[in-house]
Amino acid sequence: MINPDYKSGKSLHEQIEDEIKRLIINGHLKSDEQLPSVRELSISLTVNPNTVQKTYSLLEQAGLIYSIPAKG
């Protein structure tokens, strides 16, 4: 799904954000499909959970994703 490039000049949260946007645009993530939790994604990518939380917050501010309290 998402493979961050640790040698890239882009920050990790930008790389993750770009990949999620690409997945949405290409239709790999459907409308109302649940994204992995912050914890799940941070573990699978071996990044700090704060990085994933920042990414999700930016995507939510952009109106690309939304969260439902206690549901993800």
Description of the molecule:
This protein is 49% helix and 0% strand. The protein starts with 11 loop residues before the first helix and ends in an 11-residue tail after the last helix. The chain has helices spanning 12-25, 38-45, 49-61. The protein has three helices and no strands. With 72 residues, the protein is mostly helical.
Keywords:
3 helices; 72 residues; mainly alpha
Largest sheet: none
Mean of residue pLDDT values: 91
The string of secondary-structure elements, in order, is HHH
Distance between the ends: 19 Å
Number of strands: 0
Outline: globular
- Number of helical runs? 3
Q: What is the strand and helix layout of this fold?
A:
Elements: H1 12-25, H2 38-45, H3 49-61
Helix pairs in contact: 1-3, 2-3
Summarize the structure.
By secondary structure, the chain is mainly alpha-helical. The chain has helices at residues 12-25, 38-45, 49-61. Helix content is 49%, strand content 0%.
